[in-house]
Amino acid sequence: METVQKVGRRIREAYPDKARVGVMVEGLDVADHAHIKIFPFSTPEEFRSVPDMSVEPDHAALAVVAQNLRMEDGL
Question: What is the tens place of the pLDDT at every residue in 35-62?
Fold first, then answer.
């Protein structure tokens, strides 16, 4: 949980325009395995949004997000 909180604080710093940082824990597909999703949002619609998996991701935009979230200690 310490790492989740650390990443959440970094997301809050990187996205000050967002009102909240959400956390979802999913463990549906593989036994004894879970994914923790940490993301900025402002509205219930953003929290519940489902990405369009038929669209190719914008890799340049994702690289900018990765750069914005990079931390000094490598997390």
Answer: 999 999 999 999 999 889 999 999 999 9
As for how many domains the chain has, the answer is 1
- Give the tokens for residue 62: 């994702």
Geometric angle at alpha carbon 50, from 47 and 56, rounded to 5°: 125
Phi and psi torsions of 3, nearest 5°: -65, -40
Global pTM reads: 0.78
- What is the domain range of residue 44? 2-69
Q: Per-residue DSSP letters for 12-62?
A: HHH-TTSSEEEEEEE--SSTT--EEEEEEESSHHHHH----TTSPP-HHHH
Alpha-carbon separation of residue 72 from 35, 66, 68, 75 (angstroms):
24, 13, 12, 8
